[in-house]
Amino acid sequence: MVRLGELEQQVIGVLWQDDGSELTVREVAAHFPDHAYTTVLTVLDRLERKGMVRRIRDGRAHHYTPTGTREEYAAALMREALSSTPDPDAALVHFAESVSPEEAELLRKILGQPGPTRTPRTKK
Amino acid sequence: MITVAVLASFAVVMFGPAGMWLERSSWPRRAPRAAIVLWQAMGINGALAAIGAGLALAAEPLHRGIVSGVANIVGGAADRRSLPINGLYEACGLTLAAIAVAVLMAGMVNTTVRTILTRRRHRILLDLVAVRSQEAPGALLLRDPRATAYCLPGVRPRIVVSDGTLELLDQSELAAVVDHEWGHVHERHDLVMLPFSSLIEMLQWMPYTTRAPRSVAALLEMAADDYATRHHDRRVLASALVSMADTSLVPACAFAAGSKSIAVRVERLVSTQTNSRLSATLAIGAAGMLLAAPFMVVGLM
User: Whose C-alpha in A9, B84, B117, B170 is 20 to 30 A from the C-alpha of B156?
Assistant: First the structure.
């Protein structure tokens, strides 16, 4: 049995894949033949409570649509991560704060390295 | 009155010059963990001394020492036989002590709750949006061209890197960065930071409350660097650090005021000088004395 959390990830994945269109529970459930219709409904319900999907009533059918694209949400998370300066009261702990290119140059000298490697290094 | 004076002077020294001295000192970077313990001990000493001074002031008219004096006041209140507060000293002392305790507690609860909620919201979204990283096992990958690496500490911790980070760092640098983040998580640096974070928001006029959080945050980074370099090359981590900090490679939303600490971390990693056992021992010893001191004063006087 897949944990609900993982199923949530898969269900929102299906909605994101479908590029903003509205899907009925049945259409979503079709992607998950191993899970009961009600399970998928529960998951959509949980996603709605988390604000990730919006339910649209259309006659007797309910349609679900994501409130934002995956990229939008990733960007929002990045924004939160990047804006959490090394303020000690930040909720996220950053790997490195920022220095100016000049300072970085100076630090590279300490390291005995040449200038910035703008092109990605070959991965070992 | 001597007890009040001694305890009050503890508080004044700890929250004043002692913090200024410790921030300016250079030995903490060779003994980051011990220095953090010393910051903690200074805070606890100062807080206990301040509260103790308030209680001592309250017990002063009874001439019975703090412990039995306060017991007497509280006992009187419980019995309702006499008004517990019958003098200016008692009123001032008890009020000051109570305010100090209440302010510290409220600040701590407030910060804790807010931090937990922020992290929870972030984690819920993260789990839906991020994918498992192939390149950095154990880390989540955000599909974003900007580079970032951070950890979401807590009971259900997450380490996060982004596409930009994978582009920027080579395999060994990436592994070192991820391990640095695990250092924060495993050593529960978030719990160490919590009381200091709550200090930032209050009592801004005291040297300790502005310096301690900054210094401890920087020292925790060094501690995580030490954790990572147990299994990774020091220079590799240093080079990752410079690449991740360089704004010509990584666009930053905000310039950090304390960019000096990056330089300190890099110098520390490339330096042949290892951590100093002597500094650590001395710092821990001093911390022990600071913790015992307020109790000794109350016991002896």
Answer: B170
ipTM of this predicted structure? 0.76
* A46 and A95 within one domain: no
Does A86 lie in the same domain as A62?
no
For residue A118, with 0-12 CB atoms within 10 Å meaning exposed, 13-18 middle and 19 or more buried, which class applies? exposed
How far off is chain A from B133, nearest CA to CA, in Å? 15
From the candidates A12, A92, A108, A117, which should be mutated to test the interface with B, based on the most B CB atoms within 10 A? A92
Q: What gap in Å lies between CA A13 and CA A53, rounded to an integer? A: 11
Domain count, chain A: 2
CA of B233 vs chain A CAs: smallest distance (Å): 13
The answer to whether position A73 is within a domain reads: no
Structural domain range at position A30 = 4-66
- Rounded CA-CA distance B134/B142 in Å is 12
Taking an 8 Å cut-off on Cβ atoms, the answer to whether A122 and B160 are in contact is no
User: Which run of H or of E encompasses B142?
Assistant: strand B140-142
Contacts with A79 from chain B: Cβ below 8 Å: 253
- Assess if residue A121 is contained within a domain: no
Mark whether A88 and A59 lie in a shared domain. Answer: no
Note whether A23 and A48 are same-domain residues.
yes
Q: What is chain B's pLDDT, residue by residue, as a tens digit (301 residues)?
A: 788 899 999 999 999 999 999 999 999 999 999 999 999 999 999 989 988 888 888 776 666 666 676 676 666 655 554 444 556 667 777 787 788 788 888 888 988 898 888 888 889 899 999 988 888 888 999 988 888 888 888 888 999 999 989 999 999 999 999 999 999 999 999 899 888 888 777 777 888 988 898 899 889 999 999 999 999 999 999 999 898 888 666 554 433 334 567 888 999 999 888 889 999 999 999 999 999 998 888 887 6
Residue A8 within a domain:
yes
Pick from B252, B73, B227, B240: which is nearest to B165 by CA? B240
